[in-house]
Amino acid sequence: MTAISANAQANNAIPIPHQLYRIPCLILGALAVTVLILLLMERLVHNDMLAPPEQGPHKINTVVMDPPGPPEILPPPFVRPEPVEPPPEMPPITQTIAKNVDFTIDLTPPSHSEKISHNHSGPTDSTAIPIVRIAPDYPNRMATRGIEGYVDLIFDISTAGVPTNIRVTESEPEGAFDKAAIRALARWKYRPKQVDGYPVTQTGQQTRIRFDLSD
């Protein structure tokens, strides 16, 4: 019993020194790791604080550019024209032309008497003589209504044989045929009045232009 107890105590006493050596080893290992970390951090900080090495002057390459060309002219932007509405259709115009229009022109002698020289030794005097008479245009409105009438006119004959100073003295119906009669008389042609062989103006000539419709 004594031998067995001694062996048991010897076996229990052996692990105690191993535990004592293990603790210092752990402490030394932790210190070594800490020292290595500190050294590494110091080196990193030292490298960051070092100034970058000085570099020589930068070399600038010479760039040769082509001369600028003419400016590009862009066309104006396209603007779509607004649609144009077509003009409204005009109703057809019908015109009725009167046929078989008959007109009568009354020529009255001059209001004053003229003395005609019969001396054959020199030039003789003469009154105005009609050469060309233009028929008047029958107004379409009056023709379609079957309206007839007349216009009395007074006028002068110039030295060129042209009716001038045309005035209306009477018309029936009033104003219905005045313009047509004046236009027609203005196109007439006369041989002017002669006095001592020279043309002179003859005043106060009268005429009547009738507007009659015949079947």
TrEMBL record:
Keywords: Cell inner membrane, Cell membrane, Membrane, Protein transport, Transmembrane, Transmembrane helix, Transport. The chain crosses the membrane at residues 20-40. It is found in: Cell inner membrane. Signal peptide: none annotated. It is a single-pass membrane protein. Residues 123-215 form the TonB C-terminal domain. Its main location: membrane. Pfam families: TonB_C. The keyword Transmembrane applies. Belongs to the TonB family. NCBIfam families: tonB_Cterm. This is Energy transducer TonB. The lineage of its organism: Bacteria, Pseudomonadati, Pseudomonadota, Gammaproteobacteria, Cellvibrionales.
